[in-house]
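tool=predict chain=A
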Amino acid sequence: MINYFKYHEFDSPLQEGSGQLMQPSFLYMLNQARHYAGIPFEITSGFRIEADIERLEKAGYKVSKNSSHLKGYAADIACESGLERLKIVQSLLEAGFTRIGIAKTFIHCDNDPDKPDSIWTY
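tool=predict ok
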C-alpha cells in the first residue's frame, strides 16, 4: 500500500499518467523510507520515457540510456539541507535501498535488480 504518494507525482513531464508504470516493489520501499524519514519527499523525477532523455540532454544534463527511471525502478527526491539529506539517506538505507546517488539538490534512489549495489555522488 502506498499512502505517502500519488502516482501522478512520478509522471514524466512529457507523458501524463506514466507514474502508473512505476514498479510496485520500488513504490513499496519508497513509501517505507518516507515513513521512516518522518519528512515529506518531493519527487523531482520519477518515471522517464525516451523523449525525457532527449529533453534533459538538450538542457545540459548527462543522462544514462540505461537509466533505472526508464524501467520504473528509480526516483529523485529533492533536498535542501544537510539535515534533510541525512534523514532521506538514512531512511532509504533503513527501507533496504542499496543504490543511492547523492547530489547537492536531490537524492536518487533505485532498486533496479539488473544493477549492482552502489552509493555515488554527482
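The first strand starts at residue 43 and ends at 45. The helical segments are 24-37, 50-58, 82-95.
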